[in-house]
Design goal:
There is one protein chain. The chain is built from eight helices and eleven strands. By secondary structure, it is of the alpha/beta class. It has a single domain, classed as P-loop containing nucleotide triphosphate hydrolases (Rossmann fold, 3-Layer(aba) Sandwich), CATH 3.40.50.300. Helix 5 runs parallel beside helix 6. It is globular and about 75 Å long. 35% of the residues are buried.
């Protein structure tokens, strides 16, 4: 572990081998756990409170496909203008997504004005079938293989607030997305601060093939980012937590498993305690 912001060890950042049924995320350690990446054609949920790296995860997934495998990606942005998203990752990570967009490798579509939360009229309702039609049009036009919807909540927040209605809405949307059999989809979901949930509405995780939760953890004065691999259908991997950081150029970068990271913190504290005890010992104490 490193306490000065430096990576404790290096990965061999190589994706030379691509499995036919896998879509690598670009997070090297995670892809090794998942035996090559996410299952192609499936839908995955990445959840977490604001500022935990959900958007970066989605963009890293698209960037990896475009940059390393020539797979076109589609980014559906809902919470903020796409220009703001691209500007943000360029300033913070050094990723020039405009270059990918100019080559039609990563397509950005802004759907904010389709929904009540942003529309002038209060009774605007986005039908999941209409949303899927828009997505399918882009998929066919650009040969899309990777899709990110960031975040999914505004697609659901309409004039309806009934939980059963929300569940059926999500079920219909996921059903429509599953028709894109060759497209691997990542949905992001923002969890309200302080709530112990996996998703915004409590139904998204049941419809997704896999769930990853990004969160902050504090232990003995250290605050660090944790990636909780909670569910991965049809992939033999146990639920586990990984400590990660976000670095320029790399993006999300796993440092270690949580249990190992905590052991290193404990070892560091033990070493500090020994130094404190030695420094506090009286000088020139007579030998017994």
């Amino acid at each position: 572990m490193s306490h000065d912001g430096q990576v404790a060890y290096e990965y061999e950042y190589s994706y030379s081998q691509l499995y036919d049924n896998r879509a690598p995320t670009g997070v090297w350690y995670l892809d090794q756990l998942l035996q090559g990446g996410l299952r192609r054609g499936e839908i995955y949920l990445v959840a977490g409170e604001a500022g935990q790296g959900k958007t970066i995860f989605g963009l890293q997934f698209l960037k990896t496909g475009a940059e390393l495998y020539g797979e076109s990606g589609l980014y559906i942005t809902i919470d903020e203008p796409s220009d703001d998203v691209k500007r943000g990752v360029k300033e913070s990570l050094g990723w020039d997504l405009d270059a990918f967009e100019s080559q039609s490798k990563v397509i950005f579509v802004d759907l904010r004005t389709h929904f009540k939360i942003y529309a002038r009229e209060e009774k605007v309702v986005a039908d999941p079938r209409d949303i899927s039609k828009i997505i399918i049009e882009y998929v066919k036009k650009y040969g899309i293989k990777r899709l990110v919807i960031d975040p999914i909540a505004p697609l659901i927040i309409t004039s309806h607030s009934d939980v059963l209605w929300v569940r059926e809405y999500m079920r219909e949307l996921v059903f429509q997305l599953r028709k894109l059999k060759d497209v691997t989809t990542v949905l992001t979901s923002e969890i309200p601060t302080g709530e112990n949930k996996i998703s915004r509405f409590g139904v998204e995780e049941y419809l997704a093939s896999g769930v990853i939760k990004l969160e902050l953890m504090e232990y003995r004065g250290f605050v660090f980012r944790v990636m909780f691999v909670r569910k991965m259908r049809w992939i033999p991997v146990r639920p586990q937590k990984l400590v990660f950081e976000i670095y320029p150029q790399y993006g999300i970068y796993v440092l270690d498993r949580l249990e190992n990271f905590i052991k290193q913190i404990d070892a560091w504290y033990a070493g500090q305690q020994t130094q404190w005890e030695q420094a506090a010992a009286p000088y020139g104490a007579p030998a017994e």
